[in-house]
Amino acid sequence: MEALTPYTFNWRNVRGWLSEEEANELIRLAEGKAVLEVGTFCGRSALAMAQTARKIFCVDNFGGYPGVHSSTRDEALGNFDRAETNGKLVVLQGSQEDVLPTLNLADMEMVFYDADHSREATARGIRLLQAAGLPETATLVFHDYSDTNPGVVMAVNDFCGPLGRKPRRVGSLAIFDGSEPEKQEKVDAESYKVMLGIPTNNQQMLYGAAQGLFRATWKHQVTIAPSFSGLLASGFNILWAQALNRVKEGEITHLAFLHADIAPDDGWIDTLIEEMEAQDACFCSAVSPIKDQRGLTSTGLGEPGLSWSPLRRFTMKEIANFPETFDAATIGFPDKVLLLNTGCWVADLRNPIFRATNDKDEARLFFTINDRVVCHEGTWTHQVESEDWFFSRRMHEWGIKAVATRKVKLLHMGLSAFTNQSAWGTEDCDEDLRPLWEQAGVKV
Whose CA, among 143, 236, 321, 377, lies 20 to 30 Å from 82? Predict the structure, then answer.
């Protein structure tokens, strides 16, 4: 008779959401280190790391989740007692706000953060770790960096920006490997897979985009996906849904849009991706003029949270005085929303915030045109929020860094060709919206 293998209690027997792939990475990262875990639940990740770590300090109030889990303290401590960890685990019961300020983390070599998954709580946890003296050489790992936890994604992305660092990803782990930021090398041609969406309501109206289709890139793989729809936002959303499905399946990494009447220069996808990465952004739009003689563009500024009050559209004369690639902060308006054109753009869909949903499984980011008729002081007027400006506001709301650029040379094709490469036009500033931006104190 075959001998029975003795039962061994380990992390796999513990409740939790840590996957096998993620556990193996934590085990590897924790080897020989003193580890601080913020958010322990029932001890699954702590017991995984205890296989190789020198010491683990577990911070949790063990409050469970109201209506789902009651206190998990007894379960976690029972799991620790049953496992053979040789006294490696030290429990510090309390909230991160109560415990972290009492610690000196100068000698801590690794932090695994898996606490409250809201943006505010995660950001607060990061600040508390820094205030407690966590060294830059420490390995810092966040769990649940995924589209189902947009709060974590936004807080981690906020943390990345000032540091100029991007996390390495394993499953839903976002990993900062100590003092050496991960090298974000520009990828080879095979590495980026771009879906190029061509939204149009007329199959014959591709005369502008035609020159941009076949010489869009010298570096990346591109698949072309036209969408013919009589409803503009619907055509956009058809492509958007297709792209979200394809990135989920690993078929693409990026999505680009090119309107049928936009004629960009060769290699425009390469330029947009290079500028997006140089600015540590996830969305880059090429500045495009409106098809009339005023020199206005559909790139502008808005107030956060106010759909019906765009402050201004920039003219080509103003754009010529901006940096070639810019966001709202770069041009002096850090508290405003940069309103972008969707005629020629690229987005890095590897950022899971693009796939975030609400509690009804509806995408947080999508395209729609909002119209209304409003009566003000006895006069009825029509107002519209375009699909591109609606999308811009949603990106701002969800913490996605988006930039505009004139490095992509393009022509907006109409009765004549309108270029984005010179300071032209009959207007120096947006006269139509002057009352709005003067009232808001936005200077010319």
Answer: 143
Residue 49 has phi, psi (to 5 degrees) of -70, -30
Q: Indicate the SS3 state at residue 168.
A: strand
pLDDT tens for each residue of 348-373 = 999 999 999 888 999 999 999 999 99
Give the domain extent around 136: 11-176
DSSP-assigned letters across all residues of 276-300: HHHTT-SEEEE--B-SSTT-EEEEE
In a domain, 260, yes or no: yes
Number of domains in the chain: 2
Q: In what order do the strands lie in the sheet with 262-264?
A: 262-264, 410-413, 417-419
Helix (H, G, I), strand (E, B) or coil at 303: coil
CB-CB contact of 390 with 250 (8 Å): no
* Same domain flag for 104 and 159: yes
Strands (E), 259-394: 262-264, 283-286, 296-302, 310-315, 325-326, 337-339, 344-348, 370-376, 379-385
For 402-444, what is each residue's pLDDT tens digit?
999 999 999 998 888 899 999 999 988 877 766 666 665 655 4
* The predicted structure's pLDDT at residue 172: 92
